Design the sequence.
């Protein structure tokens, strides 16, 4: 099919064999690419009770049909597997130039299984693969690893690698590429570490043939104009994603003091505060017209350049920990990038430790120090302990669910869903977001139902596809609306397309048709997204997920006494019942109904789940 090379590279690290795995047109039509195509492949490997760190757990790097098309803002790649952080479906995405070079290598993705006997790295270029020794790279930080591989590959490759966090199998280890870009969530860096795989380097400039080049040229110009006229473009250029900090606090969407507050001195950590204090510039992923990435120049005598920090990291090491020393936030972000750590899960874990210390559940004797709110130096000390696996750091590195068990804390105070720590968007700010966190495929994920985009002031026009602006505090009809949002958001990690792209659904559909030659309407996108969501749900069901797992812990849903969300608690029962009804999910078991799976063409899942 046009838009694809029609093959994955399959690498078995145990045997050292590499071979082409053909992709049939039927699978490409149904699953398109990115995380959904990865889910189709990974499904075949899933067994109940499987160990996420076992050699047989596959790791997939997947591109999508939009990459290489000249459509802007499509340089995204999905990294997927069974997540070490949760034991369930794991999915992360990254940008930079790595996705373009992944597709340019002549493959639609890479499937990696097995475990190497010693540290290795994988080079894929010109349609060929080579496994190389990584003995001299093991133990090096992510920036140095990328530098050394770039030198060895002749400066023509992009490298996705792990740091010490992945090597030491830390539950929220991420994968870094293009210096500070990250596939951060779900702990997939630990999956690389378990395979003794230090890095994957990709190189090439091959392009898949498109179906209608002339129509695509027109769509490229339409997409560029759409982005140029996007109201947030200048804000992203000036402040990056941290442009949201001010508005987020006014909406009660920025969690503070470990999800117990929503008001804080925002002027100390918002976008202008960073631009005033530091010499900052921005950068863009390949083919992006916005450039939301941050770079701090000459941060200190020992750190000349810092990538970021972005909104999620600023909020996690800032207001969530009641820390308003932005130098310590920048240092924490750089530390996470160096060693390959998911800054969200890590920040939530440190804030949880501060919360437990204040309550007297975590004592000074157990912690080995005082862990008080707002202490930037303590945050940096805890990061060192986490990465070195010393003292209390070994417990914090396992995430909040296991921290609660280890410290004897109430599990209702662990801010996580299905083992994944909460992001920096408060579930009390948007009723639909609360529901999306509860039922989303990878746990507490703000990107799978981005209500902070849909229900925020200024977005009253809504999206097309019947997805419209609503009263964010009203649970009525949020079940149906959330189902559509989840289906639509599945597209981004599959096609692949940056979540900040303002392209409307109709333009996305016309672009897919021009690339692949398959007639596609806007409503077809929701059908595709529904198939994607249900496939990932089926994977989670096979791994033990039931309706009882579709819930939020008390710490993130109980009403606050201040701010824009004062007195608001998400009505989870009402929204869940509506969501299940419109989605065709069985209320007793939490599984998609057999008829729904068959309707979506997921026949094998229907048989596995229902017989």
Sequence:
């Amino acid at each position: 099919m046009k838009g694809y090379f029609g093959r994955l590279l399959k690498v078995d690290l145990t045997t050292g064999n590499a071979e082409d795995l053909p992709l049939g047109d039927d699978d490409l039509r149904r699953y398109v690419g990115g995380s959904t195509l990865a889910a189709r492949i990974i499904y075949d490997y899933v067994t109940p009770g499987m160990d996420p760190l076992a050699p047989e757990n596959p790791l997939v790097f997947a591109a999508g049909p939009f990459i290489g098309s000249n459509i802007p803002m499509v340089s995204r790649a999905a990294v997927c597997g069974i997540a070490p952080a949760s034991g369930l479906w794991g999915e992360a995405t990254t940008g930079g130039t790595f996705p373009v070079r992944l597709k340019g290598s002549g493959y639609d993705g890479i499937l990696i299984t097995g475990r190497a006997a010693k540290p290795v790295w994988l080079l894929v270029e010109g349609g060929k693969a080579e496994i190389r020794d990584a003995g001299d790279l093991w133990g090096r930080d992510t920036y140095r690893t990328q530098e050394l591989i770039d030198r060895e590959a002749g400066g023509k490759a992009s490298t996705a690698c792990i740091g010490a966090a992945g090597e030491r199998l830390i539950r929220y280890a991420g994968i870094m590429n293009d210096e500070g870009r990250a596939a951060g969530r779900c702990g997939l860096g630990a999956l690389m570490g378990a395979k003794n795989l230090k890095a994957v380097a990709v190189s090439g400039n091959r392009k898949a043939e498109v179906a209608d080049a002339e129509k695509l040229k027109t769509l490229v110009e339409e997409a560029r104009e759409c982005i140029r006229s996007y109201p947030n473009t200048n804000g992203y250029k000036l402040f990056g994603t941290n442009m949201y900090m001010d508005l987020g606090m006014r909406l009660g969407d920025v969690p503070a003091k470990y999800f117990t507050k929503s008001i804080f001195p925002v002027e100390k950590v918002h976008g202008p505060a960073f631009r005033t204090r530091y010499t900052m510039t921005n950068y863009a992923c390949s083919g992006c017209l916005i450039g939301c990435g941050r770079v701090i120049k000459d941060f200190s005598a020992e750190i000349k350049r810092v990538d970021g920090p972005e909104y999620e990291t600023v909020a996690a090491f800032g207001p969530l920990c009641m820390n308003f020393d932005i130098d310590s936030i920048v240092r924490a972000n750089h530390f996470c990038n160096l060693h390959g750590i998911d800054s969200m899960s890590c920040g939530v874990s440190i804030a949880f430790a501060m919360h437990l210390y204040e309550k007297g559940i975590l004592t000074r004797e157990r912690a080995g120090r005082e862990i008080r709110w707002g202490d930037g130096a303590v945050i940096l000390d805890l990061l060192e302990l986490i990465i070195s696996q010393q003292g209390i750091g070994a417990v914090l590195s396992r995430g909040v669910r296991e921290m609660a068990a280890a410290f004897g804390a109430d599990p209702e105070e662990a801010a996580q869903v299905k083992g994944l720590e909460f992001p920096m968007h408060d579930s009390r700010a948007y009723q639909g977001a609360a529901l999306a966190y509860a039922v989303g495929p990878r746990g507490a994920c703000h990107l799978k139902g981005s209500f902070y985009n849909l229900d925020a002031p200024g977005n009253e026009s809504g999206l097309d596809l019947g997805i419209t602006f609503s009263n964010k505090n009203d649970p009525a009809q949020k079940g149906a609306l959330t189902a559509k949002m989840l289906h639509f958001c599945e597209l981004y990690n599959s096609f692949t397309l940056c979540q900040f792209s303002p392209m409307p659904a109709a333009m996305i559909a016309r672009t897919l048709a021009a690339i692949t030659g398959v007639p596609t309407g806007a409503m077809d996108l929701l059908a595709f997204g529904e198939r994607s969501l249900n496939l990932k749900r089926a994977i989670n069901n096979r791994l033990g997920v039931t309706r009882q797992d579709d819930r939020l812990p008390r710490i993130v849903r109980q009403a606050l006494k201040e701010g824009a969300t004062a007195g608001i608690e998400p009505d989870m029962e009402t929204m869940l019942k509506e969501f299940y009804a419109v989605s065709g999910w069985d209320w007793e078991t939490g599984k998609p109904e057999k008829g729904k799976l068959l309707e979506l063409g997921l026949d094998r899942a229907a048989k596995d789940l229902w017989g």
